[in-house]
Amino acid sequence: MRRAALALAAGAVPTAAWAHAFSTGKDAYGAFLEGAGVILAAPGLILPVAALGIALALWRSEGLLAAWLPFLAGGMAGVALAPFAGSWAGLAVIGTGLVVAVIAALVPPARIGPAMPGLAGLTGGAVALAALEGHGWGEVALATRVGILFAANIALATVAGAARVSLERIVHPATRIAWRIAASWVAAILVLSLAFLMRAPGA
């Protein structure tokens, strides 16, 4: 178990360079897939989304619906502000994900309810900001930006949906505990990722 945890953490460690190099000359579908791949292939981007999905399901059964619009709005704001982002964007997304993961693991849902839509908006914005860090509005195809937002939203819905279904079908305290443990693992990986990122040259 300990070796598995270390292996997961090592695989999630980000590099110092958070800016992604996007191809030019691809058709719209290829650009869309490239954008989606940025989210799905980067642990530093997908883990904060997973933490949010767990937190929303633990909050209430319709938590995803209540926070989806703020998440999408935050993502669109992140896309718009990405040209102004620096290397701090990588720290911001991991820090945001860490806060959400700790909340999901440790804080009773009733206490975090009013804050969940705001946290969803911050997470969506931080993810999009880090994915497009430093790229000007004309440097990345629109289809690529759409792919980034699409993948982030699909990932959120998948995690939140899986957690909700399990909580509703396996009505036992152990189910909720298991998801809190999963959130704590996400938090642990993000702590290690944050430490490596802060030590990396230029971070």
TrEMBL record:
<keyword id="KW-0472">Membrane</keyword>
<keyword id="KW-1133">Transmembrane helix</keyword>
<keyword id="KW-0812">Transmembrane</keyword>
<feature type="transmembrane region" description="Helical">
    <location>
        <begin position="88"/>
        <end position="107"/>
    </location>
</feature>
<protein>
    <submittedName>
        <fullName>Uncharacterized protein</fullName>
    </submittedName>
</protein>
<feature type="transmembrane region" description="Helical">
    <location>
        <begin position="177"/>
        <end position="198"/>
    </location>
</feature>
<keyword id="KW-0732">Signal</keyword>
<feature type="transmembrane region" description="Helical">
    <location>
        <begin position="37"/>
        <end position="58"/>
    </location>
</feature>
<feature type="transmembrane region" description="Helical">
    <location>
        <begin position="119"/>
        <end position="137"/>
    </location>
</feature>
<feature type="signal peptide">
    <location>
        <begin position="1"/>
        <end position="19"/>
    </location>
</feature>
<feature type="transmembrane region" description="Helical">
    <location>
        <begin position="143"/>
        <end position="165"/>
    </location>
</feature>
<feature type="transmembrane region" description="Helical">
    <location>
        <begin position="65"/>
        <end position="82"/>
    </location>
</feature>
